[in-house]
Amino acid sequence: MRGGVWRVVMLGLAVTAAALVFLGVEITQLAADDRTAFTRGLAICGLGLLSVWFVFSRLSRHFRDLDRLSGRLSGARNRVDLEPMSGELARLAEAVSLARGGERGLGEGPLGGTPLGHGPFGHGPLGGGRIDRALRAALALSEDPLLILDEQGRVEQLNPAAARLLGVEEGADIGKSLLRDDLARAMERARGGGVPVTAVLRRTEDGELSARVADLGLGAGVLLSFPARGMAHAAGLSGKRTLSLRPAQPATPLGDEEPLAALPFVALWVATAGMEAGSGPAIAVGTVRLVGSRIFRTVSLALLIDPVEPVPAEATARHGIGTAMVAGERPFAAVWPAIQEALHNCIAVGIGIDSAVAALARSAALAGIAEPALPPTLDLGALAAALDPALAGASADRLAEAFALPRHPRNGPQGEALAQAELAVALLSRLTERGVVTQGQARGLVAGGDAQLSPAYPPPA
């Protein structure tokens, strides 16, 4: 869209800006002795340049919106654009969405069938009639939060559970509740793969939600489902309850000969509600992904978990997380899918990592989750002690000082997990200097000669 008109307009603005700059230089030369004329002239030039900048920014936004509208009209199936447009282009985009919703049915998307709200019983996208009434009834009957978004990220339909979970209503912009980047990536995966996908969507405030995203076809939007299984049990209802999770994808073997520089690690930090360290259910989980010495700060997870019972003062003094902070958060069963995805096919690292993984196993058993998939572990404290026996039993602060790590606040699960990831990178660097380059060699160094891969920590009896 940025063709001849764009070039002509930009050339005109550039000439105008150059003329104003030239005028400002002339004023400084001609009116240097007259302070009043000098100030007035420069003020006029400044206002002129400010006006040129304002026109430039508005025109740039206008032509950028034209490019995005062109992309939507082109029908690229893997391109999802949730950023709102402005002015008349926003109305034009909405009209295009309405028209394409009438022309394209769900038969063009992965779900097949007739477009919602169209055909003999509907009118308009998700319009009235029998289909609309049936859709609303289906949404109301579902115990899971469900909502349908249009291509611009507006809420078209939702049930009461979704309204309570996200604090939105029909016609609202979902970007006020969920980060648009996460949602756009999930929509692209669903649209590109042709099947519903699972994704972790971050709230605009603190917290994440595990969601299922299904593409309804070009122009028809997406369906979001937030599994709520396990919440009744965590709220304190009696009786046994088993949570069925979708089977994880087969993990790639992480053998002894794998180089440390290419292994997928996840720094894991878990806070528990027990009187003693490592005891009681998990109430906070933080993870940060890393591969070798590369830390992926954006691939992280930070969760608070409501244990139902009050958090003892001893536990709060240990990690700073009290009853008031976790009250009203989701129970463990509801956040476990996100935790499992963060740990999948990785080696969990951390100081006292076996205790952290044991806390997850214990919480999973309490939540009725059968056979949770837990990762293999590599203890950073034991690795540091193997490199320097003087560091045996050292605290996290002592280890950070010994390896000259930067000091920064470790407030919250994500900060604690990031500190573990930085320690892991420092230890991997020291191992490389010592000629320890494979996983088997690292485990042999820790075990004093036993280079066998340790299994995932078993759940407690």
Textual characterization of the structure:
There is one protein chain. The protein has 3 domains: 4-74; 94-225, PAS domain (Beta-Lactamase); 260-447, 2-Layer Sandwich (Nucleotidyltransferase, domain 5). The chain contains 15 helices and 10 strands. It has a 5-stranded antiparallel sheet with strand order 2-1-5-4-3. A 5-stranded mixed sheet has the order 8-7-6-9-10, with helices on both faces. It has 461 residues and is of the alpha+beta class. 33% of the residues are buried. Residues 75-79, 99-128, 229-252 and 449-461 have low confidence and may be disordered.
What is the compact description of this entry?
It is built from 15 helices and ten strands. It is of the alpha+beta class and 461 residues long.
CATH architecture of the largest domain: 2-Layer Sandwich
**Mean pLDDT over the full residue set:** 74
| Poorly predicted runs of 5 or more residues | 75-79, 99-128, 229-252, 449-461
**Oligomer kind:** single chain
Helix content: 40-55%
Rg, alpha carbons: 28 Å
Content of β-strand: 5-15%
Query: How many structural domains are formed by the residues?
Result: 3
Tell me, briefly, the overall form.
Answer: extended
Number of distinct helices: 15
DSSP E strands, number: 10
CATH class descriptor name of the largest domain = Alpha Beta
Order of helices and strands: HHHHEEHHEEEHEEEHHHEHEHHHH
The name of the CATH topology of the largest domain is: Nucleotidyltransferase, domain 5
Give the name of the CATH superfamily of the largest domain: Ribonuclease H-like superfamily/Ribonuclease H
Distance from N terminus to C terminus (CA atoms, Å) equals 65 Å
Strand order of the largest sheet: 2-1-5-4-3
Q: Outline the biggest β-sheet.
A: 5 strands, antiparallel
Broad structural category:
alpha+beta
